Amino acid sequence: MPEQMRDILELAREHGLTRDQLYRMKRNLIAKHGEDDWLHGHYPKSGRMKIMVTEQGIRWIEQVYLNPENSMQQSEIEFLLREIERAKNVLAARGIMFSDYYKHYERMTPAQMMDHFRVGKTTIYQAIKKLTDILPEEIDRTMPLSVSSEGVRWIEENILVNHYIRDLKRYKRSLEVLTE
């Protein structure tokens, strides 16, 4: 079933957004979810272009962009987890089951973490330092130094948040392909 769409100007009026705020919202939506194809332009009989936004785009605008309670990153993570759950429910209704967690973490050395997360040495060692303060049992100090799979998961979800968001987006999109 195709998603319902709404005029983005109607949505902006409903939320009391100015033209500048609407422009920033569209720019933000395209920058963060351009691959999701939530905005569609078409020309009705009046000849003026209308920009339509999908249901999922509307949910992102309301739950992430216009959410003053949480940071944008935290709202984005919560949104993506809800959308993943929504896609899993659609697949479950069709009799297709998926595991609850999509990513398997392994014990890694700092060098492996640098390659995996594509960040520098300083970033990894700062992350390990924070992990040591919070979950010291997740670090094996024997040579070579290594971080347990649970420690790697914690670092991704709490420190390297952009990497975590990117992985959640990929997983969400792969589930959505199956629900089409």
Word description of this protein:
It is a single chain. A three-stranded antiparallel β-sheet has the order 1-3-2. It has a two-stranded antiparallel ribbon with strand order 4-5. The protein has helices spanning 8-14, 19-33, 55-65, 72-93, 110-117, 121-134, 149-158, 161-179; strands at residues 5-7, 39-42, 50-54, 139-140, 146-147. The longest helix has 22 residues, at 72-93. The protein is elongated. It contains eight helices and five strands. With 180 residues, it is mostly helical.
Average pLDDT value? 86
Largest sheet: 3 strands, antiparallel
Distance between the termini: 8 Å
In DSSP terms (H or I, runs of 4 or more residues), the helix count works out at 8
The count of strands amounts to 5
Oligomer: single chain
Fraction of residues in helices?
A: 55-70%
The low-confidence runs, each spanning 5 or more residues with pLDDT under 50, are: none
What is the radius of gyration computed over CA atoms, rounded to a whole number of angstroms? 20 Å
Q: In terms of structural class, how would the helical and strand content be classed? A: mainly alpha
Which sequence of SSEs, written as H and E, runs from N to C?
EHHEEHHHHEEHH
Q: How would the global form be characterised?
A: elongated
Major sheet: order of its strands?
A: 1-3-2
- Our estimate of the beta-strand percent is 5-15%
